[in-house]
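#struct-queue
[09:14] JT: dropping the first one here, sequence first, then the structure tokens:
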Amino acid sequence: MKAYVLGSYGSPDVLQLRDVDRPAPGPGEVLVRVRAASVQPADWHLMRGEPFISRLMPGPLGLRRPRITILGADVAGEVAAVGPGVTSFRPGDEVFAMTAKGGGFAEYVCVPQTELAPKPASLTFEEAASVPLAAGTALLALRDQGGVRPGSRVLVNGASGGVGTFAVQLAKAYGAHVTGVCSTRNLDLVRSLGADEVFDRTKEDFTRGGQVYDVLLYIAGNRSFAECRRVLARKGVCVLIGGAASRWLQPAGHVFATLAASAFVPQKAALTNVLACQNNRRNLEELTALIDEGRLTPVLDRVYDFEDLRAAVRYQEEGHAPGKVVVRVGQA
């Protein structure tokens, strides 16, 4: 099969399109013929080997070269074969998944059946591939860490990005009053997703808006927890999703400092890590139900052909994509 292999750290040019052996599904695994895969900020962080401190920790980054050789966590496609013990899927089924071990930037990938779910019938493969990691992160942030319920007041900082576009819609589906923060060019997009109010981050400081929120989803920002507390209710929660990037420590430094500071005040900080979730299939099924009800719709910024994957990663790395960036691997 064809796959983009990551053999060293560097720019998107280090992703080499090669012929490699097609994987065989093991016990409890499903071999998926990939039709589409989404490109995540995590992909270019792994590609760059940043932040450098991560190379000293257990995980996908090795000290001199990556331990994971094929990137891509989100995929949508068709079941090509199943391994021993798999009873929920059969060849030909249309599925989507978030696989913690990557492998999506290839024509085939093996996925544990616990990370796999039937593809929403109303979505294309490209749309379905945009859902698992971003929407799953928003789901955990709002449902589990934030405890959002009808009447909650939710502020989404970074409302026009991959996670943010799903978060706005999910918060509205849960009955919350939603305020989004984004740049000028994305104000209409965030309003169209259902936001009750929108801050233009280029003109307004959301931490000094005078309003109070039960939940703040803080996506890839660099404001301090002390600043965020200004807009949090006394028992409010600041849910951290990513953080400002630097080559050495961030976002780990910002995240750890925020979590530590929250131990001494009534407001709390929480960290969302969808890759550590053990019930991803259940989460995908919950997201599918909302999609089928018309309450959750993926926002695709750009769709690239498989041959242009390096360009897709380069564009994602710029950090200005509204919604999701997806690669079309094959046609059904």
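[09:21] JT: and here's the second one, same format:
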Amino acid sequence: MVRRGAAAVGAGVALFTALPASPPALADDVRGGQRPVIKTLDLAKAWRVSKGRGVTVAVLDSGVDPGHRDLAGSVRVGKDFTDGANPPGVAPSRLHGTYMASLIAGHGHGKGGKLGIIGVAPEADVLSVRVILDDEEPGFWEFNSAERFENVVARGIRYAVDEGADVINMSISKELATREERAAIRYAISKGVVLVAAAGNDGDRKIAGDFAPYSYPAAFPGVVSVGATDRRLRRATFSNWNSSVLVAAPGVDIMGAGPGDEYWVGRGTSQATALVSGIAALIKARYPHLSPALVARAMSEGATDRPPGGYDTGTGFGIVNAAKALSEAGKLAGYTETATGPETQDPARPAAGGRAGPIQVIARDDKRVTAYSAIAAAATAGALGSLGVIFVEVRRVRRAHTSQDA
């Protein structure tokens, strides 16, 4: 089952709260509600360097409302890989996807864009790729049980890459990985695309007391796995904690946009993931040739509120900081971590898939081994004999000198 990262498994309460669609008469409570996140991520400083212009972020989700006033002009509606799950004539609700897109690339509205949601990368573009259904949609259970929808995430990743995405946001999670997903992720990375995914909201489900369950695609190598923090900037209780987590971001009481010019408050690793995708977009806009691995490193090196020892499974290397991440990216811009040559793995094939190429077998020649061993033994004996002769000569010379002195 593919889940949106904002919905905790088994939770009976909604994680979204609607706000009035129209802005208040005296002040913009929506933008005011974003101030803690803007401050935590140090966005005011980061925006002096980059606002994401020229970067496309693919939002693999439940669909994005391109007409929302805080996203208008920034959204390109791509392919719907869930087609056929809903009954004929039922339009997608696009709640979760619109919410995530606004956190990444919302540009606000009104004079100077001062009202509404401002995303982390307000000048970035969004490619909407529908790969999940919102919980409330009538085809939700059909989508999560029908075999024909099993690899929609893998297909969505490949589609987004081929459509020119620079960053792929996946505020979704599933318990089991597939070969097709692993191959799609390798394909994306080989094309220089940064993948960001939610660590998941099963943080209260401990396994053997050591960690919370792994979620995919976040746990795949090469994907930036994001945990969520609460208002005290500690791991949110619902956020998965395991060794896949690279960084964390605020994930509680996060303001966002909803379809039809509405606004929402929610919590989850979904929201944290969208914020991190926005920072990846800022980096890619400023340093377009920086490899996915180095973008991830810039975000981890620039993280603040680092845990004792520098890393833990709850918040990874710490809480992302947009300004510091851009600074670290500048230091890494002259480097590359892209492997080349005939021995590199085919990016279209999983690392564990298929057999390795032919291996040259070296035959053991016992006769030559015996001969070389004899030669080595003779050489050793000769060396020892020479040392003996030298030792005798030295003693003879010393005796001769002693006799003369006497």
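[09:30] RK: nice, looked through the second one.
[09:31] RK: The CA atoms of residues 20 and 262 lie 7 Å apart.
[09:31] JT: good to know. The first strand starts at residue 3 and ends at 4.
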